[in-house]
Amino acid sequence: MNSPVYLNRISSFLPNSPVSNDDMELYLGMVDGEPSKVKPIILRQNGIKNRYYALTKNQEITHTNVDLAKCAIEKLGFSKEELRKIQFLSCGTSMPDQYLPSHAAMVHGAVFDHPLEISSLAGVCMSGLMAFKVAYMSILSGNSQNAISVASELISPTMLAKFFTEEIKHKKEIGENPYLAFEKDFLRFMLSDGAAAMYLSNTREADCCFTIEWIRTFSYANKQPACMYMWAEKENDGTLRGWKTFNAKDIEEKSVWSLKQDVRQLNKYGMTLFVDAVETSLAQAGIDTDDITYVVPHLSSMFFYKILEQEFQKRNIDLPTTKWFTNLSSVGNIGAASPFVALNGLIETKCLKKGDTILLIVPESGRFSCGTALLKYV
C-alpha cells in the first residue's frame, strides 16, 4: 500500500477589486464602440455577479500570469528558507504569458532561488487538475518528498475590444453585420483572472489537512471533435484548421487567435460525458456516495447547475445539491484555477470535521475531458 500524500496548505489569489456586471465593458472595452448585444443574455444565464480582472479601466495589465501564480504561492505562507526545501513545481494554465519558455520555468524563475524539478501542463480547465495530479504522483512514486502545484489564468487581456478591431473593420468592408460571432463574444462575459496554489508532501505538517485519496482523469476526444479552441478555426466537418495554415491578414480579419466555444456541441454532449467520468470514478474507487460529504463541481456557468443535478438523478448518482459548493457567482469562471479557488472557499467557509470528504469534479470542454479527485480531511 502506498504511503499517503497530504495536502497541507492551499491558497488563492484574485487580482484587484471585484468587477460587477455593469462595469465589465469599462475594463474590456466595447467592440466597435457599442455595448455587446449578447451581454445581458449571457449574464442572465451564467449567474455570475462579480469577477476579477488583472486590468485597469485603461486596459493596462496589472499582473502577468506568472505574477498571479507567484502571488498565490506567496499566500501559502512559506519563508525563503522553507521555499528552498521545495523539490517539485507543477503549473497548469490555458493562458501562459508566452509560448516559450514554459510557464512553469517562468514561475520557477520568479519565485524560487534554487534548482528544482518543474512540469508545465497545458489544456483548458483540466490543466490545473493535471498539475495537481503530477505533483501528487511525484510524491506518491517517491520521486520527491514535497511539491507545490499552481493553477493560474490570465484571460482578460485576450478579451479586450481593441483586438477585434480588424475583424469588425473587415466585416464592414464586405457588407456583413459588424458584430462578433456568438462563440467569441459570449466568452468575454464568462471568464475571470486568478490563481490557486497547493502544497503537498509525504508528511503531515498541520493539525488539520487532507489526504489525497485519488485523482482520476478521462479524455473523450475519441468521441467528439474539439469544442473550445484558440488560434484555430473550426471547419464544417468538425476538424480544426490551425493558425499556421492562415496568412497574417486572415488571422487578423477572422480573429483566428481568439478563444471560441461551440455552445451547441457543449450543450448536446458535454454533461453526458462529464457525468460518465464521475460515474466511472466512483465505480473504480468502490466508494458509496453516502461517504462523500461535499462536492465541488467546476461549473463554467450556473446554466449547467440544474442540468448536472438532473443528469445525476437520471443515473441514480446520489449527490444532491445540498452537498455542493460553488463560488462561481462571486469570483467568476477562472478556468484551470476555478476548482481550487472554490476548494479554498469551501475550506474557509465550512466547519469541516475529521473524516469529511470532498469530491472535486473538473470538466473541460476543449475536446471533452473530465477529472475527479477525492480529498479526506484528517
Detailed description of the structure:
This protein has 378 residues and is an alpha+beta fold. The protein has two domains: 5-206, 3-Layer(aba) Sandwich (Peroxisomal Thiolase, Chain A, domain 1), CATH 3.40.47.10; 216-377, Thiolase/Chalcone synthase (Peroxisomal Thiolase, Chain A, domain 1, 3-Layer(aba) Sandwich). Helices cover 32% and strands 21% of the residues. It has 13 helices and 15 strands. The chain has helices at 24-28, 39-46, 65-74, 80-83, 103-111, 126-140, 165-173, 182-185, 248-253, 263-285, 303-314, 328-331, 338-349; strands spanning 6-13, 19-20, 50-51, 88-92, 117-121, 146-153, 194-201, 210-219, 228-229, 232-234, 240-242, 260-261, 294-297, 357-364, 369-377. The strands form four sheets. The chain has a nine-stranded mixed beta sheet, sandwiched between helices. The chain is globular and about 65 Å long. The two termini are 18 Å apart. The model has no long low-confidence stretch (mean pLDDT 96).
What is the CATH H-level superfamily of the largest domain?
Answer: Thiolase/Chalcone synthase
Q: Characterize the biggest β-sheet.
A: 9 strands, mixed
CATH class of the largest domain: Alpha Beta
- Architecture (CATH level 2) name of the largest domain: 3-Layer(aba) Sandwich
Concise summary:
The protein is α+β, with helices and mostly antiparallel strands. Helix content is 32%, strand content 21%.
Entry keywords:
378 residues; alpha+beta; Peroxisomal Thiolase, Chain A, domain 1; 2 domains; nine-stranded mixed beta sheet; two-stranded antiparallel sheet; 21% strand; globular
